[in-house]
Amino acid sequence: MENRIERLERAITISGLDTKQNKLQASIKSGDIKSQIGLSDKLSILMINEKGDSSYIGSSSGYSLFSFQGLQWIANKTKWADLELLLSQMTGHYRADWHHGNWCSFQGDIWNPAPAGDREPIPARNFAIKYVNIYFDVFNAVYPLYNRSIFDEHLHRQYSGNPPESIAWYASLNVVIAIGILSERMHCIKPNTVGDTGPSYELSWKYFRNATSCFTQLLFTDVSLMAVAALTGMAVVLQTTSSPHSAYILTSTAVRLSHSLGLDQPCDDFRISPAEIEQRLNVFWIVYMMDKGICLRYGRPSTINDEDIAVDLPRWESDIDRCRSGRGKFYAFPSLTRLALLESKVHSELYSARSRSKSDEEMLICIGTLDAELQDWKAALPIEVRPDHDIQCHDSSFLSVILLHFSYYNCLSAIHRVPLHLGLEIMDSNIRNCSLNPRLNYSAVICTHTARAVIDMLDFFSHDASPERANLIWISTHYLFCAFLVLFGNILEHPGDPDAFTDLNRLNLVTKLMSPPSATGHLSGYIRTLKTFEELANIAAAFLTCS
Prior knowledge:
The protein is an all-alpha fold. It has 20 helices and four strands.
């Protein structure tokens, strides 16, 4: 990109269109661009282990302390010289070592077709109806992948002696039952509630395995709206495991299939029923939400170009249905969709290759605008579920509200990390010379507050050592580890902070609560990650003791 910029500048000069003012602006902007390109490269991570396996994590991920520049900063602050050990721990992860959380009874490749004799039989009608109902009551209210009337028509046929022959239906039924079992247990995660003795996680895994055995056919044989919904449901489930790579690949695949079906385009003139039009819209926006969330969390380009979207957002209905208890059911889907649009803008405007063409002043104006839009989004939420307020909602909505808070804090942190990376001196000089969002002057404080808020949310499920709590831990792993790194950096930067030792306790809480899942399966890759964070907590403790 630097060479491209220089060639462009030379071409303008040779053409005779250059003026003194243009030269001055180009000179200033070119310097800004080069510094931003270099900074972005230094804050990204490319991990390559001795087997040659590699994984790229971009600068929006929140893992910049594990970049070479970040490790150098740690070494300079702490006089800790053993960078090589930490680097070997970080690059020693073999994807094959990762296992699927609590679902440890299955050891094979889940994407291979399974012989009929190895599949879990479709359950009895009453069992299926129970967990389909739970799925629609708990999960589908947040991620409305299926239209209830269309799904019920297929379900009735399934037990009428003339079952549908569609592979997409078979995969969908199994995904819905698997999620229904998970939802029954995970929605009881709220403090002071007790889950019942329902089916085991192993059974949920078996139904999920039925669905994944159809993977190849869903891609190439039975390409349909229901196939996209099934793949998206699989990706959602895989976010509750220790393997984010699988969810990343599945989401990208679902996006490509949605494009092939035109889900991002209007279809009012194609004689499609209103129910199917609504489902097409919902499935597209759920895939969009997942794609943009993963994009921001792992610093990788999105599969969806926002400029190609020609459909409306989901209808914004009443967010809270009041119950007799006073705790309302919150329908998070419209709010999550609009947050995903903001996540997309954050990555595009602050972290993409195109964003590096902005001057520092333009970047700071953009940061201020995005922060204001995010605060407007937050203010539009009912106060019962608004971040930085006590959660007061129905138990069935609790998990979706927790995930909404995690996503909000992640987006806020991604916005306010950028001025810190640019440097406080640059930021201060720009604030004196142009009208900027005053919150930019407190970016470091905002990032620290956000990290504390994320870790403090562990109180919602630290009381319980059940498998469902462990699966919620997997969903929150990225947010907790990123928050850990922010507080770790703050301790090294400000050891005299009155909250430094409290923050150290937060670091230890993260490593303590992240430990139980590692005992439930063959998670050598995850265990190495956990050991890295335990080492960082030890470094922070030693640093505070010596300060």
